[in-house]
Queue: 3 jobs
Job 1
Amino acid sequence: MSPSGRPWSLSLLFLLEMASEGINCPSRCSCQYLEVNCTGQQLQEFPVDIPLDTRQLILAANNVSYLPAVELSFLADLVYLDCRKNLLGDDLDFTFIGVAKLVYLDLSFNNLTQVTFSTFSHLLSLVVLKISDNPNLVAIEKDAFANNTWLRHLDVSRTGLTFLDTSTIRDLPNLRLLGLSDNLWHCNCSFLDFVTWMMESDVHFPDADNITCYTPAGLRALRMPAAEAQLHFSCLTRLYKQDYVFLCLVGFCIFLAGTMAAWLAGICAVIYEAHASKGEEEEEEED
Ligand SMILES: *[C@@H]1O[C@H](CO)[C@@H](O)[C@H](O)[C@H]1NC(C)=O
Ligand SMILES: *[C@@H]1O[C@H](CO)[C@@H](O)[C@H](O)[C@H]1NC(C)=O
Ligand SMILES: *[C@@H]1O[C@H](CO)[C@@H](O)[C@H](O)[C@H]1NC(C)=O
Ligand SMILES: *[C@@H]1O[C@H](CO)[C@@H](O)[C@H](O)[C@H]1NC(C)=O
Ligand SMILES: *[C@@H]1O[C@H](CO)[C@@H](O)[C@H](O)[C@H]1NC(C)=O
Ligand SMILES: *[C@@H]1O[C@H](CO)[C@@H](O)[C@H](O)[C@H]1NC(C)=O
C-alpha cells in the first residue's frame, strides 16, 4: 500500500458519505429521498439548512416552540409536515403562508390556544389536519377551515374546546373523518344544531363512545345520540314555554284593550247623556 493511499480512500469515503446524506442535511436529522427526519432530538428551534426540495419534514417529539414563516416558505414543495409533540404556542396565524402544497399537517400534542381563519387559510390542498391533544385549545373560529375544501380527516379530540359551530365543518364537502372525543362539550341549545348535524351526516366519528357532554351537570357524560334526544326535548319545551308567555301577553293586551274600550265607551255615554240632558234643560229654560 502506498503511503498516500489511506488519506485518499478516507477522503473518498467522506465524499461518498456527503453524497448519500445530501449536501446540507441539518445536524441531528437524517435525510433521504426528499425526506428530512429530526424525530426526538430535543431541538429547541426550527432546524436550519433544510434542503430546499424537501417534500416531507418530520420534527416530531422535540421542543420547538415557534415555526418561522419565512424559513418555512423556502420549502415551497413541502407536502408533509409532522410537528406532533412539540411546544408550539398560540400564534400560528400566517405561519403556513408559503407552504401552499401542504397536504398533511400534524400539530397534535402541542400548546395551540386558538384557530382563526388566518391559521390555515393558505393551505388550499390540505387533506389531513391533526390538532388533537392541545389542552389549551379553546376556540376555533367559525370560518377557520373555510378555505380547506379538500379536508378529509380532521382531528380535534382531547382539546379544551367546549363548543364548535356547525358551519365550521358542515360545508366541508370532502370530510370523511372527524375526531371530537374527550372534549368538554357544553351541551346547550346552540349545540343542538351541531348534534343534529352529527346524526344526519355520513362523516365517521372515531371513538364515538367518548364524545360526551360535560356541562350542564344534568347532561354530564351523556353520549351524543342520547344527548340529542334530551336537548331536543328541553330546547323545544323551552320554546313552548316562551310561546305560552307570548300567548299570555297577547291575551292580557286584548283584555286591556277591551277594558279600555269599554271604559272609553262608558265615558262617552256619560258625556253624551250629560250633554243631552243639559240641552233639554236649556230647551226647557227657553220655553
Ligand atoms: C423518523 O425517525 C424515527 C427515529 O429516528 C423513526 O422512528 C421514524 O419511523 C422515522 N419516520 C419516518 C417517516 O421515516
Ligand atoms: C424538552 O421538553 C421536555 C418536556 O417539556 C423537558 O423535560 C426537557 O428538559 C426539554 N429539553 C430541553 C433540551 O429543553
Ligand atoms: C401554553 O400556553 C399557555 C398560554 O399561552 C402558557 O401559559 C403556557 O405556559 C404554555 N405551556 C407550555 C408548556 O409552553
Ligand atoms: C381562500 O381561497 C380563495 C379561493 O380559493 C383564495 O382566493 C383566497 O386567497 C384564499 N384566502 C387566503 C387567505 O388564502
Ligand atoms: C352555548 O354555549 C356556547 C359556548 O359556551 C355559547 O357561545 C353560546 O352562546 C351558548 N348558547 C346559548 C343559547 O346559550
Ligand atoms: C374514553 O374515556 C374513558 C373515560 O374517561 C377513558 O378511560 C378511555 O381511555 C377513553 N378512551 C379513549 C380511546 O380515549
Job 2
Amino acid sequence: MVNEKVTMLRYRGSKFSSVKKLDIFPKVEEPFKETSPVGGTFSIISFLLILWLVYSEVNYYLNSRFIFKFTPDVALDEKLKINVDITVAMPCYFLGADILDSTNQNTFNFGNLDEEDTWFELAPNQQMHFDNKRHFNSYLREEYHAVKDLLWRSRFSTQFGELPPRNDKPNRPHDACRLYGSFVLNKVAGNFHITAGKSLQLPRGHIHINAFMSERDYNFSHRINKFSFGDPSHGIVHPLEGDEVISSFGRTLYNYFIEVVPTDVNTFLSSTNTYQYSVKALARPIDHDKGSHGIPGLFFKYDVSALRVTVKQERDHLGVFLARLCSIVGGVYVCSGRQYIFITIMSQKHNYRDLSIVKIDSIDSYLKQ
Ligand SMILES: *[C@@H]1O[C@H](CO)[C@@H](O)[C@H](O)[C@H]1NC(C)=O
C-alpha cells in the first residue's frame, strides 16, 4: 500500500508537488481564520508565561552549581602553610610557642612567629573589628551548609583582614602577648603549642623553662584572630577565627584537635589549592592534687586528611540549555492551544441551545443559497 502511494507520487511527475504533499503545516485560508478576545487573552498569558520560564531558565543556566569530589590525596610532598595570630593574656616573657611535627624536625627552620607585647583588652576600633568577625564566623559555622555555594560563587571573602592597630594606648603595663606569623610545614600531623616558659631545644626534644613563675602568673585566656592553613582563599570558613576564651582558672589546658582537609576550588574565574579544617575543642583545668595532670597551655593538634576535596563549578551544556528553551516555548504554546480549544468547547456546551439555533439557522441559509 505504501509502495503504491510512493509510485503514484512518482508517477505524477513534478518533484515540487510531491514535496508539497509532505507539508505537515496545513495552511488555513484567510477567511476561515477567526480571532477572539479569549484567544487573545490566551496568547498574552502564554507569552508572559514563556517569558517568565525563559527568564528563570536563563538564570538557572548562568547560575552554575558546585560539584564535590573526594579523591585520595597523593600530593604528599606539598607543604602545609599555617597562619596564626593569637593573643594570650600573659606577657610575652612568660610564653613560648613551638611546633613539633611527626618528623621530629625543629619546625622553626620553616618560619618564625613574631611576638608583640600588648594589652588583652582591645581598643574600641579593634573590638569592633573582632566582634564583627566573631559574629560573622559563628553565623557561618551554623549555616555553613546552606551558604557555601554563595560564598564560592560571589568570591566572598571571609577574611576580614588584619586586626587594625590600636587607636588608644592604656596607661598600664602590658598584660598580654600577641603571637603572629606563618610557617611552612611538612604535610604531616603536628602540634603547635603555646605554653608557659621559653622553649629550649635539646637533642632529644625540647622543654619549656618556667621555673620562675608563680601560680598567679598563669592565665591562658586567649583570642584567636587568625588561624588558617594554606593561602588565603575566597569562600573558606576558618572555624577558629573570632574565638575568645576567658579562663577563670589560670592553669588550664586548652586542646584543639584539628583535621585539615586539602581543598581545591575551581571556579570559572580562578582555581585555588588551599585547606579547610574542622576542629574539636577541649578545656581541662590542670590540678595535680585532683589527679588532672598535664601542662597548662594552648595545644593545636593538627592532622592532615588522607582525602582531598575538589570543588568544581559546573554548568549545563549549551545544547541542553537550548533544548530546554525550545521545549519551554513549544510546550507552553501547545498546552495553551489545547486549553483554549477545551475552554471554547466547554463554553459552547454551556450555550448549547443558542448554538443549536445558530447551527440550524446557518444550515438553513446554506440550503437557501
Ligand atoms: C585572665 O585574663 C582575663 C583578661 O584580662 C581576665 O578576664 C581573667 O579573669 C583572667 N583570669 C585569671 C584566672 O586570672
Job 3
Amino acid sequence: MKGVQFLVAFVLLALASKLVSASDPGPLQDFCVAINDTKDGVFVNGKFCKDPKLATAKDFFLPGLNIPGNTSNQVGSMVTPANVQQIPGLNTLGISLVRIDYAPYGGLNPPHTHPRATEILVVVEGTLSVGFVTSNTDNRLFTKVLYPGDVFVFPEGMIHFQFNIGSTNAVAFAALSSQNPGVITIANAVFGSDPAINPDVLAKAFQLDQNIVKQLQSRFWWDNN
Ligand SMILES: *[C@@H]1O[C@H](CO)[C@@H](O)[C@H](O)[C@H]1NC(C)=O
Ligand SMILES: *[C@@H]1O[C@H](CO)[C@@H](O)[C@H](O)[C@H]1NC(C)=O
C-alpha cells in the first residue's frame, strides 16, 4: 500500500513539474550568446552558444527602437521585434521586447496569440482599446481602454488584440516571457494558410457560406510582424 501511495505521489509530482517547465527553461549559466555554426562554440541547453570569452557587448545590443514602424498597410500597425533573432545574447534568457506602432483612427494589432509567452504592454502614446479572451468554454473577454502610462497583461496563449481608438498615432512597448515568443495571427493562420484549409472545414467551423470562405481565402493577409 505504501508503494502505491509513493507511486501516486511520484506521478502527481511528475505531472506538476511538466506543467512548471512549460515555459522557457531557466539559464544554466550567465548567458549563452546564440551562434549559427559550431566553430568556437559550446553546446548548452539544446542550443549552440558562442564561447563566453568571445562574447561582446554587441551580442546584447540592438539600436533603433526609437524609430516608428511603418503603419501604411491594411491593418494599420507594425510590430518591431527585439527577440533572439535580433539580439543573440537573449538566447536561453526567456525574455524579449517589441515596439508596436498604430495608425490613427483604427490602427489594429489584429487578434493573435503567442504560443510561448505572457505579454506585458505599456502605452507610451495614444489611446488603445485592448483585450484578451480566455479558453473554452467561458471564452470570457477582458477588455480595457489604455492611455499613456497604462500597463496591461495578456496571459500566455490567450487570443488578444490592440486597437487605436484615438485620432493620433499610438505607440506601445511590450515585454514577452520568451526569447522566441512566436505569433499566430488568427485570420492569417485560418484563412491565409498555405496550402489553403478545405473551405468545407472553415464554412462549418465559422458557420459561413462557402463562397464567403473562398473570398476570405483569396485575400492577401498582411503580416504586421
Ligand atoms: C543566423 O542565421 C540567420 C539566417 O541565415 C541570420 O538571419 C542570423 O542573423 C544569424 N545569426 C547569427 C547570430 O549569426
Ligand atoms: C511605408 O510603406 C508603404 C507601403 O509599403 C510605402 O509605400 C512607404 O514608402 C513606406 N514609408 C516609409 C516612410 O518607409
